[in-house]
Amino acid sequence: MSCAKVNLGLEVLHKRSDSYHQILSVLLKINLNDYISFKESKETQIMQDGIEESDNIIRKVVSFMQKQYRNSPITIEVQKNIPYSSGLGGGSSNAAAAIKGINKLWKLKLKTEEMKKIAIHFGSDVPFFISHNTAVIEGRGEIIHEIPRPSFNQILLICPNIYLDQKTTKIYDNVLSYTDGSRTLKTISMIKENNEISYNLFNGLESSALEMFPTLKSFKNILKNLKLNSLNLTGAGPTYYSIFNDNSATFWKNKIESKLKAKCIIVDNL
């Protein structure tokens, strides 16, 4: 199983000398899952609809593991439920699931920290998916501190049908201002004190995303006019989400789907 995530706030602190960006974010796993199976085979195959195999991050993980550990062919089958390129971490989660799945299939007995060191080669979010449910992420994503599960009832994901090629790179490259991390530190304190989060969470990529994604600004304006309790961008977008401390997510799901061409999904945190 390979689960999605949302960012409970994200701040870009500065651009580093290695061209990556220094970030501070809270990542939360949610119960929207892809299902991935692994088996030995005569030739290596990645069976997944909707993506070219040469572009598939799982293929890159397999090639790395075969070079580093064991040159044995395997077949991996992926049933996708997490929308592609949505800000929900589907690719990063799949990469982490592939590392863990191959470790188990080949009986490599790699420890968690060893798998995290492999994971950072494939993306800043990937180490988080190796073992954590809720965590503070620092550096380029490799510094991870587990924190308690936040206190809220449901999350409504609002996924517009908008695509941007090379999304994350373009949006990070277009970030024009940096912040000091104080907004995310406030959220961390709220979570640790088991307080309800009912305000909009700051995402330092949002201004860039609104500029780069076609039609995302008008999409957000329609959502704002509906007066949701909270409206937050996850990752580099384009998915927005709203947090509910009651059971009204279904009402809002129906209301949004009647106004917008968007896939709405109700999830819980893990």
TL;DR?
This protein is of the alpha+beta class and 270 residues long. The chain has helices spanning 57-68, 90-105, 112-119, 126-131, 167-173, 182-192, 206-212, 216-225, 249-259; strands at residues 2-15, 21-40, 45-47, 74-79, 134-139, 143-146, 154-160, 232-233, 240-244, 262-267. It folds into 2 domains: 2-146, Ribosomal Protein S5, domain 2; 154-267, GHMP kinase, C-terminal domain (Alpha-Beta Plaits, 2-Layer Sandwich), CATH 3.30.70.
Notes on the protein architecture:
This protein is an alpha+beta fold and 270 residues long. It folds into 2 domains: 2-146, Ribosomal Protein S5, domain 2, CATH 3.30.230.10; 154-267, Alpha-Beta Plaits (2-Layer Sandwich), CATH 3.30.70.890. The chain is 33% helix and 27% strand. The protein contains 9 helices and 10 strands. Strands 1, 2, 3, 4, 5 and 6 form a 6-stranded mixed sheet that branches. It has a 4-stranded antiparallel sheet with strand order 8-9-7-10. Strand 8 and strand 9 (240-244) form a beta hairpin. The radius of gyration is 18 Å and the shape is globular. The mean pLDDT is 95.
Which helices and strands, and how do they pair?
Blueprint: E1 2-15, E2 21-40, E3 45-47, H1 57-68, E4 74-79, H2 90-105, H3 112-119, H4 126-131, E5 134-139, E6 143-146, E7 154-160, H5 167-173, H6 182-192, H7 206-212, H8 216-225, E8 232-233, E9 240-244, H9 249-259, E10 262-267
Parallel strand pairs: 3-4
Antiparallel strand pairs: 1-2, 2-4, 2-5, 5-6, 7-9, 7-10, 8-9
Helix pairs in contact: 1-2, 2-3
What spatial form do the alpha-carbon principal axes imply? globular
Number of domains: 2
Indicate the CATH topology of the largest domain.
Answer: Ribosomal Protein S5, domain 2
* Helical percentage: 25-40%
Overall structural class, as computed from helix and strand content, comes to: alpha+beta
Amount of beta strand: 25-35%
Low-confidence stretches: none
Order of helices and strands: EEEHEHHHEEEHHHHEEHE
The number of helical segments is: 9
Distance from N terminus to C terminus (CA atoms, Å) equals: 13 Å
What does the main sheet amount to?
6 strands, mixed
Work out the radius of gyration.
Answer: 18 Å
* Name of the CATH class of the largest domain: Alpha Beta
CATH architectural category of the largest domain: 2-Layer Sandwich
| Total beta strand runs | 10
| Averaged pLDDT | 95
